[in-house]
Amino acid sequence: MTQAWKCSGLRWSADGPVLRWDGGRCSALSWGKQVAFRIVDGGVRTCVGARGHPCAARAVVPGRSTGARCEECARMDRAHSVAADTVADDPRPYHVYLAWFGPGMVKVGITALERGPARLLEQGAVCFSWLGTGPLMAARRAEELLRAALGVPDRIPYADKRAVRSELPGTQDERAAEIVALHARAVALDGWPESLTREPLDPVDHVRVFGLAGLPAAGAAVRELVAGGVVRGELVAAAGPDLHLAGASEDGAVVVLDTRLMTGWELLPAEGSVPELTVPVRRFRREPGVQDGLF
């Protein structure tokens, strides 16, 4: 009987994206590689637990959840999260950064210095630059200062990031322009914490790392995985948790798979080489002049 595997998420290494599996196995991904798997027939998606501990209840979680955690495990995970401001005594130094995801989409954030650019790759930042380095609470105060003074958020929805990846400016200088302007404004501000060292402008571009040059527009995104469903397509790009797969849909359009939807499921290899997609998707509307909503 073929062994089923459980995915523990997409991680970024110096060589590119890597799918990690429970038990420590890793699958390196490269452009042109076929991504092919089938969800176990009759299977259910179970909670992935929290902080390295399995879910005691082995609770079933919704297919559309990107966290793949039950309420109790989600609370436990959040209770020890720097992002939730529940860890004020972390002794590690932190970076403050500006990240650009597309025209008009810049955010400010923090990440532990020891992680290097990993956090930016995980978020799908197309371009970024460091702003400063210092203790956690100083970095947090600087983040709040910059959000208010520069008028930039600390979060950008993944749906917005996906929508512009095939329409990015063609040169690194063009992609870095907003970061350059905001960095100059940021370092000139008064009120920076004294313990935070300001960093010089040094834009880093991830278009080549993500494989975004010449990326075809996506026609749909996987909404959720379901028992017995199959995903099989050619990897043409990856950014953050997203895999852009060519040929998976019936019309041949690129489909985006958020790998966070894979966690908690038992997965099997999908035999064959013909592209296939038998899971629910959300089609993107691209008719000119058609508005998807009020705002």
The percent range for strand residues is 25-35%
Compute the gyration radius: what is it? 20 Å
Tally of helical segments: 6
End-to-end separation: 51 Å
Largest β-sheet summary: 11 strands, mixed
User: Roughly what percent helix?
Assistant: 10-25%
Written description of the protein model:
- It is a single chain.
- The protein is an alpha+beta fold.
- The protein has helices at residues 71-79, 118-123, 136-150, 158-164, 172-187, 207-210, and strands spanning 5-13, 16-21, 26-28, 34-39, 94-102, 105-112, 127-134, 197-198, 204-205, 218-222, 230-239, 242-246, 254-258, 266-269, 276-277, 281-283.
- It contains six helices and 16 strands.
- Strands 1, 2, 3, 4, 10, 11, 12, 13, 14, 15 and 16 form an eleven-stranded mixed β-sheet that branches. Strands 5, 6, 7, 8 and 9 form a five-stranded antiparallel β-sheet that branches.
- The protein is globular, with a radius of gyration of 20 Å.
- Mean pLDDT is 90; it is low at 287-295.
